[in-house]
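Lines hold sequence, tokenised fold; shown next:
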Amino acid sequence: MAKSQFAYGVSLAAIAVTMWGASAQAQNVAAAPANAGFQRGGGGHHHHNGGGGGGGSSQSGAVDPGVRGGAPGAGQPLPGISSDQMNFFTVAEGTFNDADTPATGLGPGFNLDSCGGCHAFPAAGGSSPPTNNPQIAVATAMGATNVVPSFVTANGPIREARFVVNPDGTPDGGVHDLFSIAGRSDAQGCDLAQPDFAGQLANNNVIFRIPPPTYGDGLIESLSDASLQADFAAQAQQKASLGISGAFNTSGNTGNITRFGWKAQNISLLMFAGEAYNAEQGVTNELFPNERNNPDASCQLNALPEDATPLTDTAPSASQAADFNSDIVQFAMFMRLLAAPTPAVPLNIPSGGTASASASTTAASASTSTTAASTTAASTASTAPASTTVAVASVLPTAAATTSTAAAAASSTALSATSVNAGLQAFINVGCAACHTVSHTTGNSALGTGATNVTVNSFSDYATHNMGSGLADRVTQGNANGFMFRSAPLWGVGQRAFFLHDGRTSDLQQAIAQHASSGSEANQVVSQFQMLSTTDQQNILNFLRAL
């Protein structure tokens, strides 16, 4: 996505006065009462941790437009790749979607039988499909005797389960596979039992993760540590004024920034692929060569590692390079060569990717400036054609929306360029972009021109942040403790069916509200979002669903 200069419809000084003057009014949001319960996409369960985040929006008229239809806008290869890369991408995509069996390494414990099954929507490489969760069918495939856990539902998200502590009280945090190959006709003799999920749920000892999308991840791998650190430092003043700190997760061996996974725990796509192949499908590989779950001999069906570098080409394909690489290398290359998701409408990204107004916390005329900003933005946005840049949206409301305005905003959820780009600017102005950094630039990438010196509008700083008691999962990975998560990249969110690390909601309004709870770095930003007019909130939701 090319950057283009944003045409501001109000003065930058007015934006700064409005945004930062509001900070005094928008202090930490109190946590919701314990046992508040959350909406889960398709599931309807209460969250296992009980405690909640912030409540719903103070403006009731804005609505999440929902998963946008039309073409996927994702799943295509990077532009400008060579014919050899294209051949590798095509072969690797097939491997990514192939279903494993016990003979090819599945199990003895597993969550699903293919990478493509988890990363399915809206195209290969994505996240959970919105309906027909494949974990339901795979639980009893080939005669397997598994019981589907209560937290896995037909139209809910694909989930993995982690236990917080071991029976002796020491930290666990690892993946406990949902299913066993026991009972399958192609795994006769294996008797590995499923974990006692009902008992662990009763002990409040289970947390969930859903599959993150992988589109554009080759571009993220092409960002240098130095560039990520510089982009993070460039927002230091804004972060500090909003109560945001954050830190990069790093490799214990090299000190390099790790950036993949919900807690940014993996340093590369190869590590991400190798770990997932072992933890999610039970397939041993050259990065993780041993079986999990300490199975007895009856469940160890193959020589180890089950996925290894082939030394002969037993099934020639269009890519000899793919033929002579292991599955995990193919998975990693497929993800590396995936292009970034395409927004539903062109985005008018501000120069530099952030609001260029200087942060000012001494705004004597905040109320007056807010009124002026809101009036100017409303009049300009109503007349600007979709093909032009649009005026900046108001940052905070001057008063509650009238009935007619609220009704119009609630019913008008079309992803027009005017609304989307007004929402982008409001997203920046209220401080969302302090963590969900709009733009980065790649360096010189071995992937070629499609990944070299490219502007990456992924909406993440790739740092981890304290998200408070409401989202805490009590699991530590690397430098990220039980309260911390990576700022999730937002590109492609318009076609996501489930949100947050555990898939607890399908509603963007709820996902935003859940960012606020006791101790969360997002409290002030969420408070400012909730103070927006209905129109501005709707614009932000429309912007997110256009990504």
